[in-house]
Amino acid sequence: METLKDKYAPYFKIGTAFENYDLVNADLIKTQFNSMTCANAMKFGCLTEKPGEYEFKYADELVKFAKDNNMAIHGHNYVWHNQTPDYIFENTSAEELIETLKNHVRILKDHFGELDSFDAVNEAIEDKSEQYLRDTKWKRILGDDYVSKVFRAIHEVVPNTQLFYNDYNESFPEKREKIVRLLKEMLADGVPVYGMGLQSHISIYGPDLDEIKRSIEAYAALGLRLRISELDVSMYLNNNDKDPEVKMPNPELMKKQADYYGELFKIYRSYADHIDAVTFWGVTDKDSWLNYFPIPGRRNYPLLFDDNGQPKEAFYSVMNF
Ligand code: 9MR
User: Ligand 1 in contact with 40 (CB < 6 A)?
Assistant: First the structure.
């Protein structure tokens, strides 16, 4: 059977973000995907909890798996408001925090070698209308231009790594405008931003496909390379508990999902010149983060492979064109 990575080889890489426990699906991963992101294992707070102490065993296992199977490795992430150890923010000046970050990037480079691409900054834009940047410890300590500062600092240590800005709700017009503003300002200042990661945590109910097209165009128009970086297509309308629970993957919703996935990949293919990779956030429905968020234990079915690792209808609509 033809696989995702082979079918899409003329267009872009097909990635998956996974955890160590996903290696129960090692065969599926290595046959279908040619790019790997650690879903958690390379995050600042997953590598170090105390000054000077780093634990690499989880990331190491995933990196080895990727290398053994000729998968590209995309790093995720250096600077975020989540999953970052508190100690780096304690009693520190702006200069010291930049040094701490550079030291962290250097430790990763010495350990893994320089990776091809990395999410330098994750989710810096605020969702609320009236506010531009999210209020984070990074911003409080480094100032309003902290995103540029950390891109420059990281680039000094890993000059050959393609540095991405990565965010969600990136196709909502209001948030898109704020992200475009940030990226434009950075590019005008000569900040070494290489690309934009469109997380694409979306749903069978939207965003509207025209909005997705518009977003790809808006980011590509800046001259940046794009990654679809965390794709999944939820079965629920909103991230809240008002939706009736989908107890079973019922045929009507599965068809809706398959159609949506089919249209989505048609769009991605038509912008393939701008897109380096399309990465799914997970491998099978069974282990998706959406089974725990926003409602712990509520089942979701957002990916192309079912609980048993079998291709779903959505898989075939992505493959048959
Ligand atoms: O999938 C990740 C989940 O296991 C973690 O608990 C969560 C913690 O915030 O992060 C998830 O991954 C996120 C990614 O790093 C950034 N974009 C949103 C992803 C889903 O929440």
Answer: yes
